[in-house]
Amino acid sequence: MIDIQFLISTGPCKMFQEGQYIPCPGGSDEADRAMYVLLTGMVDVYKESAAGGKQSVGTLLPGDVFGGREYFADAVDCTYRAALDSAVFVINKASFSELSWSQPEVLFEIFRASYKPLKKIPTSEIAKIIRSKDENATVNDKPPPKPAQPEGAQLRAQVQAQVLARAQEAMKSSSVNGGSGIFPQGHKPYPGVTQPEFLKLVFSKEYKCPLCSQTFSDYKIFSSKLYEARPMRYDLRRFYTGFKSEWYEVITCSNCLFSMFGNYFTDPKPLQKAKFEDSLVGARSTIHMDFSEERNLDFVFTSHYLALLCADGYLSSINRQIKAKLWGNLSWLYEDAEDAEMMKFAALNAAEQYEAIYSQTPLTTVQEQITCLSIAGMQHRAGVDRNLKKYLFSAKTSKQGDKSYAKIAEDFMYDLRLNEA
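Predicted structure:
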């Protein structure tokens, strides 16, 4: 089913008044080529009859797709007229490219809907729709004038209001950090927890925010100065002498709060920007932290949870990888804060994300080893067992895999057997 609210919130949208014809031009001019998804209202479809004149052949309702033949085949089969005030999502070269890159599942649903046969809606049903519209209208001798607004602006304003309302509702249900809804239930603040010694192993770097385009200063890890204090643990956490890398892996823009791992600080697509904005609209009104100051533990937790919000702006495969890494980091941070319950909560979320990666993402042999170890390690930390040993066995016996990961899996299986004895 097409996600109409997503299309409304991202645009481009156009409004057509009742009785207005909706153009579906073909031709070679790419700027004019378009097909549509009906978002609100109702559209009548006409064809030229053999006797001349236009003959009604169908009626479109919200979620229906039209204009595809004109868009792809330059064939003008039908004409379309708004039977009620209607809004459409415009699929042109730019929006088609954006959807194919950022939301392929939405584009798939649009294509599937475009092959539905035209349907004739009984006159009695159309009368009900129109009557319902009239009953909801303002009762006056003269209808109120239609407000003049940019195309699609009214729709986007409505959706932004809905997003804000949902965010405010979430904030009311949370008592953490002055009522901010970005934290899960059970999260606790950790005021004054700092690690100034970590500053010896980072250096200042200029970043350009992918969302607001502002330049700001933050830190980057001095990887060449890191020394492992002990071997990698069964859940693949690395331990460094005098440093915890999780504190500096997520970067937060002090201007707009966009947060992400440093290697994702690249220019996003317009549709991504819209999703980032929708995700952060509630957080900006409730997070009152200065992200230009030195890090403390509350800073680090807030950056990670903001990054979880921003992760929804990426393709599903990238989204899962980002969220798996973020939840894994959070489980380790809660471990350091000695919060066992929240450590288990975050580890379970990480395990679920890694399981989704394992089942839905093409992986190299070594990537599969790493993913299997991550699933098993996070399940063990969460106190659950969903075929945990199967994942360990797969990591251990991989013929083309990395021997170091196979050794970690073997040692982990040995420890589990000792604990069962």
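Summary: The chain has 13 helices and 14 strands.
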